[in-house]
Amino acid sequence: MRTRPHVLIIVSSTRPNANGPAIGSWVEAELVARGDVTTAVADLAAVALPLLDEPHHPSKRRYLHDHTHRWSGLVDAADGFVFITPEYNRGMPGSLKNALDYLHEEWRHKPAAFVSYSGGVSGGTRAVEMAKQTMTALAMWPITEMVNIPRIDSHFGPAGFTPPVGAAGALSTMVDSLVAHISATCELRAIA
Fold first, then answer.
1. In the Cβ-directed half-sphere of 151, how many Cα atoms lie within 13 Å?
2. pLDDT, position 176
3. DSSP character at residue 116
4. Which of the four, 81, 88, 163, 168, has the lowest number of CB atoms within 10 Å?
5. pTM (predicted TM-score)
6. Do the beta carbons of residue 113 and residue 145 sit within 8 Å?
7. Distance between CA atoms of residues 84 and 89, nearest Å
8. Quick one: how far is CA 67 from the chain centroid?
9. What is the pLDDT of residue 113?
10. CA 26 to CA 61: how far, in whole Å?
11. Contact 12, 20 (CB under 8 A)
């Protein structure tokens, strides 16, 4: 394992004017301030994956398209992930499902954490539960600790995004668990 694990923060919503990029910036700033991880941000709106268009099963890694090679490189370089995801109609956004389906081996034995949000009171928990099913099929390690932000619009104002009370502490606890899982799964990937 590297001296400091590399965490890829994935912003899942591709909607124009989405809340995810602002939340992703907050998460990145908090992780950088810790000093024990390196980070990168992948905004799926910028990654711009079309609906899965690779003719070969992703487990073969026989990618034909440049967008898939770029996505593969970002995911492969990561030791773990923080997914920033909204909840759409009691589930994860289609953009997140599509991004997960594009790859296979690049996800294997890597832990995933979640910062979820919604307009209502669920805070995006149903999106996370749906995502965990797909991730488990990809042999990922979704961790239990997460940050949920209900009533997302109440956390945006003229200054931008203001995290709810307790969110920074919950994020710190979540990342502590993510780092511990990265340590364990790096060993697993080395012998797999």
1. 4
2. 98
3. E
4. 168
5. 0.96
6. yes
7. 16
8. 18
9. 98
10. 33
11. yes
